[in-house]
Every structure is written in structure tokens, then in C-alpha cells.
Give the backbone structure.
Amino acid sequence: MEAGRTRINMEQRTKRKRKRRKNWKRIIIAYTLRTLVAVVLLGMVFLMICGCIFLYQLGHKEKDDVSSVNAHVKSQLRGAGTQPDSPLPLTDCKIVLDAGHGGLDGGCSFGDTVEKDVSLAVTLALGEYLEAKGIQVVYTRREDDSLGLSERADLVNGEEPDFLFSIHCNSYEEDASIRGLEIHYQKGRKEGKAMAEQIGGWLEENTSIEVRDAKENNLQILRETSVKAVLIELGFLTNAADRQILSSQEQRDELAKALADGIWEYTQAVGR
């Protein structure tokens, strides 16, 4: 009886020892797995940090490279007499400038201020500013020449430009208080409307020029040309304030520069 109990106790001890060994094995395996997971996670974090540092350094290197290229381009532009802060020139953009009237056709006038002279002076100055920006400019006239509207339209269509700007002066004898620059677009042409509104809006926001709302019209020079085109009335010769601007060479030049900037911004925004 006593021997049987002893044997049972020994078996129980043996089972308990085996159970403890199994528990220790499980604990060791669990800790080992946890350690391996922790090492893997730490390794992944380390690799992510290294990757971020590498990308950060690479980005700065590319930025420095771009800056150095830009500095080189700007230095080249300075040497060529181009504004360094301006976008690179659109050398493949062609614009036709049409100075309204001319020759025997003087257009509207007030005293010694005649539309054909004002439109030509502003057109030539405008062309110089656009050419300085890298735009190719073609003129329908550069002197006091007589040109019919159909002749002008044929010239424009033959050049196949990207844009046409016809330059004129306005007049309204019934009310001398009316003033301001006015841009006309051909009836039914959405591109012309967008062009008139965007350039007029830019001038209104960025200059002190009095700008009137863009107007839909049916004008031969716009109707008979197959390009994006607007007609710009620089101001009213019947208005004293507008007439003073249009009679002054200095102020005409400032107006031409503002127009060139507005046209440039438009071409940059919409492309060709």
C-alpha cells in the first residue's frame, strides 16, 4: 500500500516537472518570438529613418541643382538685356499688332490729338515691349499708311499668328464724362470673349488704368480674321483725362508697357 502511494507521488512529481519544463519552453519561445518581432520592427523603423534622411538630402541636392541652373539662366538673361525675374521667353509665340486707321483715314480726333497717330505710337511701343519678352511681333503698319480693313485681315490670316490686337481710340461726343480703356471681341467667339475679359481684368487689378467692361461687337477686322483677336480702344479722346494720357508720349509709353504686361500674363496663362 505504502509502495503504491510512493509510486503515485513520484509519477505526480515527474508530471509536474515535465509540465514545468513545457511551461519554461513556452515562455522561452514566447520571449524569443517577441524579441525577434521587436528587432524586426526596430530594423524597419531604422530603415524608414534612413530612407527619409536620404530622400531629404536628395531633395535638397536637386533643389540646389535647379537653383544653380536658374542662376545660370538668369545670368545669361542679364547679359542679353532681359529681365531676370521674367519667365523664359515664348519665342514661338507670334502676335500681329494692327494700328487702327492711317493715311487719309485719321479716325476720331479732338483738337490736335488724332486717333491714327495715337494708335500707331502706342502700337509701336507695345511691340517693342512684347519683343523684349521674346514674342515675335508683326505689324499691319509701322508708318502713316492707308490700309483697308480687308487688306489688314488678309495680312493677318497670311501670317497665321497666335493672337491679333487691333489698337484704336474711342470717342463719344454726347457725354464727355465717359472714359476708360475698352476691349471688344467678335460676336459669338468665346475665345475672344475670354481673352478680352482676362486681359481687361488683369489691367484693372494690377494698374491704375480705368478699364470698362469687355464688349461683344461685330467688327470687320475681328470678323474676317481666323485667329484669337480683340480690338482695344485705348480711351476716349472726348474725355479730358483720357485725352491727356493719350496726348503725352510718356503716358502713352506707360500705357503700352501695361498692355504688354497684361498680354504677356494672358499668353503665359493660356499658352498658344
Residues 103 and 146 are 4 Å apart (CA to CA). The first helix runs from residue 2 to 80. The two ends are 111 Å apart (CA to CA).
